[in-house]
Known about the structure:
Layout: E1 3-4, H1 10-20, H2 25-31, E2 46-47, H3 50-65, H4 77-92, H5 96-99, H6 102-112, H7 114-121, H8 141-150, E3 152-154, E4 157-159, H9 168-175, H10 178-181, H11 184-194, H12 197-201, H13 206-220, H14 231-252
Parallel strand pairs: 1-2
Antiparallel strand pairs: 3-4
Amino acid sequence: MTTLYPRLSDAEGRILLKRIRLQDVDTLARDARLEHPKIYAPTGGIPASRERLEAVADAIRQCAKAYGYPHYIDDATGGFDRALAAVVFEDTDMAPAEAAAPEVWTYMATRLVPDVVMWRWQPKQNDKRWIGRGLVRHTFGRLWWQAYALGVPAGDGRDYALLNSLSEADLNQIFERRSIGGTPPLAQALVSELADTRVAASGLPRRAVVRDVTKRVSRLIPFTSFLALDEPQIRMRLHDVVTESLTALAATR
């Protein structure tokens, strides 16, 4: 049985966010509370106990401490995101249906560990980092989905090496297109091809290549059932797409 987490609506989250913005990291950590309206999904699963919520909050803070929390270190944020993706995915024990609920992530960001969100994004603040609506930008939601799609089963665990192969901005180009990021075999093959040495050897800006390739893949999806293909077939198809993109971009450079 998977774990169900408390839910906060956008409106409730925004009310809390107005107060959060007036506080610093230390105050938020001291005043963080686990109390909630006890609203859960009406589906199968076990509602998270107080002990589970405390364990998740502690795992997230311990991960942040390895990257300087509560002191902000700008150069450490990329590494923190990659490490946190595995923590959020493994320690929450969520099913994809639960992770697709925006209200779950709004609760985590505004009630469970608001101090970590404040620490991660200071001095920049964006409502999308706190409010779950639109998971591509959410502090925790986006990382869960990245780990779900790009974490490859290996032995008794998962290998998250693909998460380290592209920048956050490049991963956003992939995961903001749910038809790509929501299909793990397709996302894994695409990231592998984009991280291939031939892309760097082309001399083209990686961002331009990622943007062009994701557009080409999006145009293919209505006519190609990637779920009906096996891994080698998907990889071969995307290899051709990347080749086409590199050729086209080089011609217009």
